[in-house]
Design a protein that fits this description.
disordered C terminus; 337 residues; 20% strand; alpha/beta
């Protein structure tokens, strides 16, 4: 009786020859990590749970804000102020009690990423942070776990399948743009985020059922201002050499030369007491000597300024360079978005 009930629930996808009972069993056995429980995750999570994914781990440290609701449709007005992971887990359990949902109310960072990714069938990167995306890509490459990463801003966005048997996110995006922005800073259309999050879910399910061509090594881009969609494969994209890696503050050692790029308004205290505090332009004008065999560590909020300073340093120094992204404040702590 139970088996028949489950079959009735999933019959419309099981009857597809690409899925069948074998594909449905793979979906049910999947253990998926979803990082970022916001606009991208809202449709992705609902479709994954609806499809019968067996185990979901949700990672986010933020709280539901009223300004989230136009695009984060998993939440209701009554959820404002609640933990995103716990509010999402409650909604998803109500959608499918047969799916185990584990909320992890924390921020993903280099110190905990490996433990969270380890043992997962695949990872969905739904975070609004390039530092998180690069950290996940590095860990997924190390562990051989597929990563489905997406981003949406304004009227545009992309979704792609990385790592596993395909090149990493760094192979497609080896360099950062001169400026980066978030939804909170420049805005985004809710349906655009929802559409791209849905593509993420479909790519994940396509991987689980062994669909051909594989979603790994595939990039899809969307421009909903001009109503255009495009895609390309990057199966042979080379991995960049000498990439800057993100580390956690706890990984700073006594021998590191630390450059704190946040001002006192951002952080009253630098990441370490002996850090050199300056702006990117000040660092570019005044080179800080770093002895051979030592490591330079650049620290800022998002990682962008750290990347810019590190890129400048790489032009004249070939030693070890690491970056630290201290992350954003919680939504209820932000004064202006």
């Amino acid at each position: 009786m139970v088996g028949g009930h489950k079959m009735n629930r999933y019959v419309r996808q099981v009857q597809l020859p690409e899925v069948g009972s074998t594909g449905q069993a793979a979906i049910g056995a999947a253990r998926i990590l979803v990082v970022g429980v916001g606009g991208l995750a809202a449709p992705a999570l609902q479709y994954l749970v609806g499809a019968g994914v067996g185990h979901l781990t949700l990672v986010d440290h933020d709280l539901v804000a009223r300004t989230n609701l136009h695009r984060q449709t998993l939440f209701r007005e009554a959820d404002v102020g609640a933990s995103k992971t716990h509010a999402a887990a409650s909604a998803l359990r109500a959608l499918n009690a047969g799916c185990k949902v584990v909320p992890v109310n924390t921020q993903l960072h280099p110190a905990n990423a490996r433990g969270l990714v380890n043992g997962k069938t695949l990872v969905l990167d739904c975070a609004d942070s390039f530092a998180v995306s690069y950290t996940l890509s590095d860990v997924c490459v190390e562990l051989g776990v597929p990563l489905f990463s997406a981003s949406a801003l304004g009227f545009t966005g992309y979704a792609g399948g990385f790592c596993g048997s395909s090149p990493s996110l760094r192979a497609v995006f080896p360099d950062l743009p001169d400026r980066t922005a978030t939804c909170a800073q420049v805005g985004v259309m809710g349906p655009v985020v929802g559409m791209i999050g849905t593509v993420q879910a479909q790519m994940a399910l396509a991987y689980l059922i062994g669909q051909s061509p594989s979603p790994l090594g595939q990039m899809m881009s969307f421009d909903m201002r001009n109503f255009r969609a495009s895609g390309f494969r990057f199966d042979d994209a080379p991995e960049p050499s000498g990439a800057f890696t993100f580390i956690a503050p706890a990984e700073i050692t006594a021998s590191d030369v630390v450059i704190e790029l946040r001002d006192t308004a951002e952080a009253a205290d630098p990441v370490t007491p002996d850090a050199h505090r300056m702006t990117v332009s000040e660092f570019q004008r005044h080179r800080i000597p770093v002895a051979t065999g030592k490591r330079a560590v650049f620290v800022c909020r998002s990682g962008l300024r750290a990347w810019q300073a590190a890129t400048h340093m790489r032009s004249y120094w070939a030693g070890d360079i690491s970056l630290i992204s201290m992350g954003d404040m919680l939504s209820h702590q932000r004064q202006h978005e």
